[in-house]
Write a structure and sequence with these properties.
five-stranded parallel β-sheet; alpha/beta; three-stranded antiparallel β-sheet; binds flavin-adenine dinucleotide; 36% helix; FAD/NAD(P)-binding domain; 8 helices
Length: 286
């Protein structure tokens, strides 16, 4: 059942910030942007909270979309963006943020939020800035229903698994993805990413069949394939399996890899056609 974005830890966030996790969140942002772009206001001020993958990707896309009208600010509590990324990707992302004129506030925490202002705390000093949209990409929490199951959980509420992806003490229950903590057969902690969940899915399928047919179960081995990030409409960065690439070539490579990873041919055709048609739509429907 994946994970959720916690919105209840800072005053005003649940009421005024837009999380970025579900398709409904994406439509909410789309509508808000459309309304702001059609308004008579001069600048459109956007604050994105969290300089992880989602925050950095969103900041680049929004700064590019809004152009001179946009004032995009990325707020991060720690002292660097993309803490878990390879240096190559972090560097490419920093350059993209700079080129797009995005303000990056490191070591800065959100204190509170109202309908049109955000209070930011930096080294003991609090500044309140006017804002049109706040996007909240920080944190993950496990669904209450998963947390309430009478099974072993870690301190974050994730189910704790054996390397064969069975819930501890319950060999007939398998779990995977964001809602589970797994140390694989090599002792690696499996990251809560689509890449991790996707790989676990094949093992869970296999192990379910094995347990029904009383065959030996396969211990899960996570293969880190690297990471890719979009940094605007035609810019991206990727690092993995000995390859490092950024700029327009990385953008094309990323799209081809995503297309390859789509679950069915139907998805591949729909998404591929959409990508081909998008530039035409942008031209015809300004
Ligand atoms: C904005 C964003 C961008 C991301 N980008 C990347 C990326 O580029 N690469 C990457 O590797 N990872 C990425 N991730 C992480 C990745 O999406 C997750 O790690 C992955 O989807 C986890 O898979 P999952 O199956 O555990 O959960 P999910 O993919 O979230 O699937 C859980 C499903 O369960 C459904 N569900 C929830 N509650 C119920 C219920 N009560 N009843 C029935 N159904 C329910 C949900 O609607 C959802 O469809 C991103 C995450 C976010 C939020």
């Amino acid at each position: 059942m994946g994970s959720e974005t916690p919105l209840d830890r800072i005053p005003g966030v649940a009421e005024y910030a837009i999380p970025f996790r579900t398709i409904v969140d994406a439509y909410r942002l789309k509508e808000k942007l459309r309304a702001l772009e059609q308004s008579n206001g001069d600048k459109i001020r956007i604050v994105i909270v969290g300089a992880g993958y989602s925050g950095v990707e969103l900041a680049c896309k929004l700064a590019e979309r809004l152009g001179d009208r946009g004032r995009v600010r990325l707020v991060e509590a720690t002292d660097q963006i993309l803490r878990t990324s390879p240096e190559f990707n972090r560097h490419a992302a920093s350059q993209a943020l700079e080129q797009l004129g995005i303000f990056v506030d490191l070591e800065t925490k959100v204190e509170s939020l109202t309908a049109d202002a955000i209070a930011l705390e930096y080294r003991g000093q609090v500044d309140t800035l006017p804002v049109d949209v706040v996007l909240w990409t920080v944190g993950t929490k496990i669904a209450p229903v998963v947390q309430s199951l009478p099974l072993k959980h870690n301190e974050r509420g994730q189910l704790v698994l054996t390397p064969t992806l069975q819930v501890i003490d319950h060999p007939n229950i398998f779990a995977l993805g964001d809602s589970a903590e797994c140390i694989d057969a090599e002792g690696q902690k499996v990251p809560t990413t689509a890449q991790g969940a996707f790989q676990q899915a094949e093992y869970v399928g296999w192990n379910l069949w094995s347990s029904i047919t009383e065959k030996p179960l396969l211990p899960f081995r996570y293969q880190a394939l690297g990471e890719m990030m979009t940094l605007g409409k035609e810019n991206a960065t990727l690092a993995g399996l000995g390859v490092k690439l950024d700029g327009p070539f990385a953008h094309i490579a990323r799209r081809l890899i995503y297309l390859y990873r789509m679950p069915t041919l139907d998805h591949q055709i729909k998404v591929g056609l959409n990508w081909i048609m998008q530039p035409l739509r942008d031209l015809l429907l300004p």
